[in-house]
Amino acid sequence: MEYPLEVSPETCALVLGADAALAGLPGVVETVPAFRSVLVVYDPRAVSFDDLADRAEGATRRATPVALESGRLVEVPVVYGGAAGPDLEAVASACGLRPDDVIRLHSEPTYLVYMLGFAPGYPYLGLLPAPLRLPRRAAPRLRVPAGSVAIADQFSGIYPQETAGGWHLVGRTPLVLFDPARTPPFLLRPGDRVRFVPVRDAAPQAAPARSPVRPHRPTFEVLQPGLMSTVQDLGRAGWRRFGVPSSGALDRAALVGANAALGNPPDAAALELTFPGPTLRVLEAAEIAVAGADLEACLNGSPLDLEDPVVVRPGDVVTFEAPRRGQWAYLAVAGGIDVPPVCGSRATYARGGLGGVAGRPLRAGDVLGRGEGATGPRRRGRSVAAPPPSAPVRVIMGPQAGEFSIQAEAALLSQPFEATVHRDRSGMRLRGPVLGHRDRAEILSDALLPGAIQVPAEGQPIVILADGPTTGGYAKIAFVIDADLDRVAQITPGGTVRFQAVTVAAAHEASRASAARWNP
Q: 100, 121, 379, 502: which could form a disulfide with 177 (CB 3.0–4.6 Å)?
């Protein structure tokens, strides 16, 4: 649901009012407010697109704008300049001001939290006084310390965790904006108001370090962690509005298949891995199954069949010897991998330090435990055949397809694209014909979901995956439908993909077929 193309308190009040009204509609899973839009995420098994669209339009018309002056006022102490704000002098020079003027201008307004995104708890605060408005840095920093207070364009922001970033750093706050062990974990939310308070010095209030929780039933010792081995389930819902993506398995059908072979619930946590895979020593007798990519899983050097349950005993060693097919494999254990749930899921989101083993990929020496046991019916194979790997990947055009040239849309739907080595759990860069924009590549940031095909200025598409950002500022030419996203994630570097446009109705039918494969 979109409002006029502007950033203003008036539009924000409309967006937040609509967000509250839309969240209560039947079939809605979650809503994500942004600068001038609300993303409505819904379950097509519970409501049709047309029915929801009608209800959403009516709810939006009846929605009452939020009274912004009633939002919480949060005072944020800031140490400006020096090591805390290394760009203060440069900002002052670029704006024709003295550093003290920058501090005064930055700390005088009361800012509105327009939205959260980019990283868990990252607030977009506006509007910045006109004399301080600068474009982003030409070259982003690879490391921005947690708590850094920054400015760019019309906004100020606060980095909740150490991360890369391209905004100008003018100061730092000791406040912890995001701590998953805290209730609620986020300091700010859309509609809050923020006032920066200059201070000379402040001790940082670091979030407590998270250590692995010793499992009740130690089952595996990690001898070698592999390239990117994480605990995943089917992901977390309801937290995108705070900058937390769904995460979860990149190939959800494979995770469900590994669990089904053991009688686990579909969403039981398992180990997701790619090549080179981990080396695991068994500590306690258990039953395991491997599904997804064929990375030549071996038990004591003997190959294992995919989705075939096998008993392992203390001293056994599980390895992955060679990549044969696909990108991501899943090792499930009867009872599921036992790690504490965070924000409703055991899925690892490494960028935010959430879930899994201390919120990170596995390390040598980690110990993984399992639950008490699986009690459900067992199943091998899939009851409904999945599309072949060579089948076109189905997409729904938009939501910003109009920002691209006619030639770009034609190229997307007629030419092959190659998967590059530039990929991780957040997204996959493709290489192919240049997808040209009509004007600019950048848009006013709005909400993102896995499957979005963003196209930066160079014209090469990026498919957003499970750990991808919750908001983004590049135009999206199309969305991979949910039923085909698992196949996209399994494409190896050098593999090719072709796209085919389909209707929303066809996407829903494909989603129902996927559900039949997962839960026959």
A: 121
What residue ranges in 334-416 does DSSP mark as E strands?
367-369, 393-397
Name which of 15, 249, 21 is nearest 126 in CA terms.
15
d(CA 451, CA 13): 29
Token digits of residue 319: 């390895």
Q: List helix spans (H) across 84-129.
A: 88-95, 99-107
**Sign of the CA dihedral with 335 first, then 341, 343, and 349 last:** negative
Place of tokens 């939006």: 60
Go through 369-384 and write b for each residue having 16 or more CB atoms within 10 A of its CB, e for each that does not: bbbeebeeeebeebee
Rounded CA-CA distance 113/68 in Å is: 10
Joined tokens for residue 53: 């669209």
Rounded to an integer, what distance in angstroms lies between the CA atom of residue 193 and that of residue 239?
A: 20
Local confidence band at 382 (pLDDT 50, 70, 90 cut-offs): low
pLDDT reported for residue 206: 58
pLDDT band at 209 (very low <50, low <70, confident <90, very high): low
pLDDT tens for 25-67 read 999 999 999 999 999 999 998 999 999 999 999 999 999 999 9
Contacts 24+ apart (CB under 8 A), 95-100: 95/131, 95/132, 95/134, 97/131
